[in-house]
Amino acid sequence: MRIDLHKIPQASPDDLSGLDHLIQSGTLDPTQIIAILGKTEGNGCVNDFTRGFATQTLKAYLGEKIGAAAAKQIVYIMSGGTEGVLSPHLNVFTRQAGSLEESPHWGLVMGISRTRPFAPDEIGSLAMVKTVAQAVQAALDDARLTPENVHFVQIKCPLVQSNQAESGRSSYQSMADSRGAAALGAAIALGEIQPEQLQPEAICQNFNLYSKTASASAGVELQNCEIFVLGNAAHATGDLIVGHAVMQHALDIEAVRSAIADTGQPPSQVVNIFAKVEADPSGAVLNRRHTMLDDSDISHTRMSRAVVGAVVAAVIQDPMVYVSGGSEHQGPPGGGPVAVISRLSSAPVR
Amino acid sequence: MRIDLHKIPQASPDDLSGLDHLIQSGTLDPTQIIAILGKTEGNGCVNDFTRGFATQTLKAYLGEKIGAAAAKQIVYIMSGGTEGVLSPHLNVFTRQAGSLEESPHWGLVMGISRTRPFAPDEIGSLAMVKTVAQAVQAALDDARLTPENVHFVQIKCPLVQSNQAESGRSSYQSMADSRGAAALGAAIALGEIQPEQLQPEAICQNFNLYSKTASASAGVELQNCEIFVLGNAAHATGDLIVGHAVMQHALDIEAVRSAIADTGQPPSQVVNIFAKVEADPSGAVLNRRHTMLDDSDISHTRMSRAVVGAVVAAVIQDPMVYVSGGSEHQGPPGGGPVAVISRLSSAPVR
Amino acid sequence: MRIDLHKIPQASPDDLSGLDHLIQSGTLDPTQIIAILGKTEGNGCVNDFTRGFATQTLKAYLGEKIGAAAAKQIVYIMSGGTEGVLSPHLNVFTRQAGSLEESPHWGLVMGISRTRPFAPDEIGSLAMVKTVAQAVQAALDDARLTPENVHFVQIKCPLVQSNQAESGRSSYQSMADSRGAAALGAAIALGEIQPEQLQPEAICQNFNLYSKTASASAGVELQNCEIFVLGNAAHATGDLIVGHAVMQHALDIEAVRSAIADTGQPPSQVVNIFAKVEADPSGAVLNRRHTMLDDSDISHTRMSRAVVGAVVAAVIQDPMVYVSGGSEHQGPPGGGPVAVISRLSSAPVR
Amino acid sequence: MRIDLHKIPQASPDDLSGLDHLIQSGTLDPTQIIAILGKTEGNGCVNDFTRGFATQTLKAYLGEKIGAAAAKQIVYIMSGGTEGVLSPHLNVFTRQAGSLEESPHWGLVMGISRTRPFAPDEIGSLAMVKTVAQAVQAALDDARLTPENVHFVQIKCPLVQSNQAESGRSSYQSMADSRGAAALGAAIALGEIQPEQLQPEAICQNFNLYSKTASASAGVELQNCEIFVLGNAAHATGDLIVGHAVMQHALDIEAVRSAIADTGQPPSQVVNIFAKVEADPSGAVLNRRHTMLDDSDISHTRMSRAVVGAVVAAVIQDPMVYVSGGSEHQGPPGGGPVAVISRLSSAPVR
User: Fold this and answer.
1) Can you tell me the distance from the alpha carbon of B291 to that of C40, in angstroms, rounded to the nearest whole number?
2) Mean pLDDT of all residues in chain A?
3) Where, by residue number, is the active site (chains A, B, C, D) (predicted)?
4) How far apart are CA C284 and CA A293, in angstroms?
5) Is the minimum CB–CB distance between A297 and chain C shorter than 8 Å?
6) Catalytic residue among B7, B39, B113, B156, which?
7) Which residue in B33, B181, B233, C243 has the most C-beta neighbors within 10 A?
8) Which residues of chain C neighbour D46 with C-beta distances below 8 Å?
9) Is residue D72 part of a domain?
10) Would you list the DSSP string of B149-214?
11) Given a cut of 90, is residue C102 above it in pLDDT?
């Protein structure tokens, strides 16, 4: 299995000039695309339509290139919010059977899956956790990956809009519930949490239960979950490898360096970094009070993306990184998983 | 009892030039001040320090004029948020025994009271409801008012900051809980709700329970509740009168006109209008979808103040009105009480 | 000429279920659509992608219904910003030659036109004014309208993004410049301003020069201007009529009533109201200080839409009205044009 | 001359409990305070009243401790904006003549000064530049510092509110103009720019002219400029030393390390770091597009503080640092000066 990753800048959510150039020049074969992970420039919260706009544009474009049915098989995950230095871009993943000249070696493999749609009152529930767990397992199977070799599980999950809401839950809160349940589903599939450990009331309450590799992003543009998993395996034939670490807090610059080191490659070989973040729910970072949770003018998910985006970008001196807000059950409270895809600097050992 | 109301523009939260002019010119005797209700230009949400800034400035100024102990007896209620056309101002209420030349007649009377401080986990609880109910009764006694003649109950109540919060409640949500419990306290004191009707789980859940005259405003600048009541009684000796109505929705312009009519005076006699508002929790106003509850960039309390501020101001062609956001248990869902103080256009009947 | 207007709610910028229902049921013939004026739920400022998202969705949908070439002939004008009670919707205008059974009478007619694209440094310039003036004249010709019978000129105009900007002009400022130049173009075409009166330095400086019927809206989603004009003429055959007035300030509720009266129809016959607004540049409304221009957290165009939206909606008790922010050279400073389309309550006089 | 720096957390703009504790315990002698530099939790833009609230609170408190006249001699500079991880705090600087036991050595010295008030139309003008230049020279004299040994010049400067504004300048823009002119004044006093190089039209236009040590912060709470300078000199007797560097861009983490190294002390000895920042006016950081200048919901100065605050805090793993937004003529476009005060790790060489 050969996985390639093309990191493509976007001038706006509907800008596909970079993707089109790669396809026109023959660098990227659109029939091989299995997933597109985008960072779009909306507010990343409830009324962020840049995610849906980018997805609609991609589907229409790829529908023309490879047919609507094939375009529909691709997993599209758009995460809103490019606060601070974060730079809007698409991560286009392609997958192909290893070519005859390539022999398998230890490196990046990838799988995808989808859940059924969820009803509004299922979002954030134990039923959602279980359904996501099954789908993550399906993605592992698709990648031929074992849990211990997984480094990143990306899940796009739905939210509840105010006009669908049951009494007392805001649409913004439903995003947190949805991300939390999705992350716990991944944790169960990966064996990080045992199903019997998980009581319904623990969801978005007991944050000591978490996954070290799950990354969940909620959006108004879908009703089900769409999933991809990244890991390393012996049947890889490409020149990419993935590593990860867990940030303990928003300024955990050492964790970013550890995640890079986990790929076995120098920082110059990094293709992209994928991190989840949140404003520390304790109200303090490194024992210093922060004001993100009491700022009624700027959502704390927006601010936390600006912070961790700056930290990650400073390490590799590249602001075109993927940082997504809201890390409920994704890493410890105030922290979050960070994964790195690097290019193998020398010919892989076969 | 003679109540006077001075409506004074402010150029900033610490601008007391208007008040000082009235005092210097002998128009306003600072020893007679019993309450100051301000509309300050912060965001009206958690991190709004304009309320505390105005209060601190007032206390220091009046402390010099009338002594710190006397200044401390005054009820200071600052409500943040002058979105749209709303114009920052102070409502300075004075009270004096009727002078010898004045005979009593039907008109405005006023009373004040305070509760004990509340612990963070009491905020929004049944204990808070009961404590507020007792304090509202004390304010009625202070005014020598009977419940059926009350037209406006203003309560300033505390909130829970994120660093004090128990798990799972945001500081923004605690403002709603606090306002809701305070309003229910008023409703019980006024006989609008029977104590046995009120279950703890109804607070901020069953919005069919509400007061028609309570107006609660939460802020970081106090830990207890401060209260004043306005009503009409036969022992009034001043030239003001109060009326009220209940807005059923944010565009209920007829209710504003009814409240004016309830004073028995023409619109030209209005001194100020006091209204509570909220973004309709159903997600629609007059069966048309609104987007306030799904806008993650602007708090819905801010937007709802802009809306009702414009409606009220348009009726009397004066944007210097008091409109406060967050009307949990204050009027029906999506609506809120509206009170009017007018000047008697002819000599009161004695 | 018969003009019809369908006012269609949208649940999101890409929701065409209402339009589709009208087309499927035969109520609306898509080949007759000449213009679609939408109010979408973005911030209405620079990074509002709801406008482009709605337009892309409409073009793709109508392209399937009537062919891409025909869909491209339609004028699409999306104005962002549904602050407060404003409700997202589309105004779909159709035009057809009067049918045999209908005889012409005084009523609504409509024309459309487009300009060439503008370079970034042309935006807000005298060259833009002149080009728009010619295009407005073309739209008048298309409608067979004379200037004195025009009631509304809608112009969608471009802006300059920060990465295209010359030194010293923000993208937000370029929106104002673009709207101002477009409105002056309309004023010249309508004879409200003589070309020789207009010096280049007057653009967005001398606001005593203005149009009483122009409404300009800037967006990132186009580089040229797209225009439609509405007026009354003797060759109308439909059952609509248009009127207008000029709001002198944000609370000019009488102007809204005048505009309704100008149609000769009672308020119950109003189909939609179209208004332009701005935060009064003097810093005061009706001699009361407002804080919109000094609020660094919420753009003043957003707040001013919430205000005027509430006022207009309160008059007709319908929040699904079209209110657009930024009224440079559109009505007097702090005010703006307001137009009303009403349905003739009885059979038109033929 | 002995300079001490106390870095004191604040729980709110009016929280002086930390300062009071130091004074009560005898650690800090209030008669020795010459300047207080605060980072308060407002929006840092026009309508940020946390600056004035903190200053009012400090003046009242210190007035009681040392008398109103002495309290008035202190330079109070409050800079708003603690976005992201930045933690609200006060930097209280004390100055005393070296005690008998201390011999002079190379280390931190400090001087203060003030300008006259500026009229609104002077703000951002060449007249302001010249007046600030003279005042910076006065502060150098007060510190007995030569320009080549200066590492940080902090200037608090006024802004123009919308109700004072001449046509066409927003209050937000006036903040930039004021900071720019103040920084150019410092640059002239320090010999970084020759007076004859500076044309009036260069102010806030030609950003190739800049100071490497100036830090200017605008606020509504004063009409003049208040200034302090930090540098090293042979007549120091305390245990602090200052260094600086210039960040070339928002992610210039090496410049932060250089500034620390410039003090000759290890990172563990850092007391505080002082940085100026801005959203890169080119629209890109390290050749990657950023969206800060086109985001109409969050001011770019707010976002840029979050970014550089995170970078600086990550280096020393302490979020209680001073980062201030808007670096016009303060460092190169997109960058800004960064200064570090460290404690001498061993006994200073005498």
Assistant:
1) 10
2) 95
3) 156, 217
4) 33
5) yes
6) B156
7) B181
8) 294-296
9) no
10) GEEEEEEEEE---GGGPPTT--HHHHHHHHHHHHHHHHHHHTTSS-GGG--GGGTTT-TTS-BSSE
11) no
Predicted pLDDT of residue D348: 61
Does pLDDT of C348 surpass 70? Answer: no
The letter for the amino acid at B134 is Q
Binding site annotation covers D67? no
Look at residue D135 and tell me if it is in a domain.
yes
**B19: which 2 tokens?**
């008040």
Distances (CA, A) of C1 to A22, C4, C136, C151: 50, 10, 19, 17
Distance in angstroms (rounded) separating the CA atoms of residues B66 and D227: 37
On the 0-12 / 13-18 / 19+ scale of CB atoms within 10 A, A125 is: middle
Per-residue pLDDT tens digits for C206-223: 999 999 999 999 988 899
Q: Please indicate whether residue D217 is annotated as part of the active site.
A: yes
Tell me whether D289 touches chain A (CB under 8 Å): yes
- What is the phi/psi pair of residue B312, to 5°? -65, -45
Provide the shortest C-alpha distance from residue B163 to chain A (in Å).
5
ipTM over 0.90: yes
Q: pLDDT tens digit string along B135-145?
A: 999 999 999 99
What residues contact residue B34 under an 8 Å CB cut-off, 6+ apart?
B73, B74, B75, B93, B94, B95, B110, B112, B228
Question: How does residue A348 score in pLDDT terms, banded at 50, 70 and 90?
Answer: low
Whole domain around residue C224: which residue ranges? 102-350
Pairwise CB contact (< 8 Å): C88 & B308: no
The pLDDT of residue A166 is 61
- Please give the tally of structural domains in chain D: 1
Which CATH number is D243's domain given? 3.30.1330.180
Asked if B263 contacts B256 with a C-beta cutoff of 8 angstroms, the reply is: no
Task: Reply yes or no on whether D130 is catalytic.
Answer: no
Computed over its alpha carbons, how large is the radius of gyration of chain A? 19
To the nearest whole percent, how much of chain D has pLDDT over 90? Answer: 90
Which SS3 state, helix, strand or coil, does residue B215 take?
A: strand
Cα–Cα distance, B108 to B343 (Å, whole number): 10
Residue C307 lies in a domain: yes
A174 annotated to bind ligand: no
Q: How far is D10 from chain B (nearest CA, A)?
A: 13
Question: Quick one: three-class SS letters along chain C?
Answer: CEEEEEEEECCCCCCCHHHHHHHHCCCCCHHHEEEEEEEECCCCCCCCCHHHHHHHHHHHHHHHHHCHHHHHHCEEEEEECCCCCCCCEEEEEEEECCCCCCCCEEEEEEEEEECCCCCHHHCCCHHHHHHHHHHHHHHHHHHCCCHHHEEEEEEEEECCCHHHCCCCCCHHHHHHHHHHHHHHHHHHHCCCCCHHHCCHHHCCCCCCCCECCEEEEEECCCCCCEEEEEEEEEEECCCEEEEEEEECCCCCHHHHHHHHHHCCCCHHHEEEEEEEECCCCCCEECCEECCHHHCCCCCHHHHHHHHHHHHHHHHHCCCCCEEEECCCCECCCCCEEEEEEEECCCCCCC
Alpha carbon separation from C153 to A151, C46, C244, C302, C304 (Å, rounded): 58, 22, 11, 22, 21
In one-letter notation, the amino acid at residue D259 is A
Q: Is residue B255 part of a domain?
A: yes
Give the pLDDT score at A220: 85
The answer to whether D204 faces chain C, any CB pair under 8 Å, is: yes
Residue C346 has pLDDT above 90, yes or no: no
Tell whether the torsion through CA atoms of A47, A53, A58 and A59 is positive or negative: positive
- Residue C34: CB atoms within 10 Å: 18
Nearest beta carbon to residue A283 from set B162, B168, B293: B162
Reported as a pLDDT band with limits 50, 70 and 90, residue B168 is: low
Place of tokens 């295009």: C135
Answer whether 0.90 is exceeded by the pTM: yes
In this structure, are strands C89-96 and C2-9 parallel, antiparallel, or unpaired?
A: antiparallel
